[in-house]
Task: structure prediction
Amino acid sequence: MKNIFEAPFIKEMCEVTANMYCLGWDERNGGNISVMLDEKEVGEYLDINDVIRTIPTGFDAKELIGKIFIVTGTGKYFKNVAKDPENNLGIIRIAEDGTTAELLWGYSDGGKFTSELPAHLMSHTVRLAINPENRVVMHCHPDYTLAMTQVCEVDERKLTRILWKQMTESIVVFPDGVGMLPWMVCGTNDIGIATAEKMKQYRLVVWTLHGIYGAGKDLDETFGLIETVEKAAKMYMLTAHLPAVNTIEDKDLKALAEAFGVDYRKDFLDL
Ligand code: 2HA
Ligand code: ZN
Result:
């Protein structure tokens, strides 16, 4: 058996949580990440038949039965993941009943997965149906994205248009736009269902006065999506109170999307 602390999936989780903490996106126990792992790869580091304990998830994830995920722990701090991955992370498999998680590694102090597991697993299910390569769901609390939700209406067309117009990269990176939910109680099946519903159209979903969800094929892609939204939100919050002298017009957004060959939300432009 190989040393699990050397496994790429553990090292990447340590790196990404440290980066997110340093960017200020994950204060205290804020944020959570889940990554679907390849059973064969996990089997090089763990006896996947050895279940440490079982933990009810509180909902039915029948489309994900048998799938293995590495998930950040509830109440755990991103700041601490790299120095103690075995306590702050867990590797779980969705059991045959669809409603139980089998712990294969981690949560070593008796803990469990993030309270946002419903939003994660429901989002995985939806994104996998759209793109079988999807592996990652990531949630965090980036400053400017959050600030924007204080001053922008809960209107994803309006939000996306503002973000697209802040900088050239935006429409190229997230041509599918950004979904937006009104403020809701977090950690519930309801917010999980609402997020997954948005994930049918978007890889990015903003939670008003809370944070953002991103989904992608790997940690880099997902982090990059959120990073680009946050950069655009920052440009907006730095300049919204000043007269805009130079702006990207709708015809420019169309030209950009066409130049980069991205399939964008045409109904989000006024042409
Ligand atoms: O895990 O961010 O949304 C802490 C949170 C809850
Ligand atoms: Zn949160």
About this structure: The longest helix spans residues 219-239. The first strand starts at residue 32 and ends at 37. DSSP finds eleven helices and nine strands in the chain.
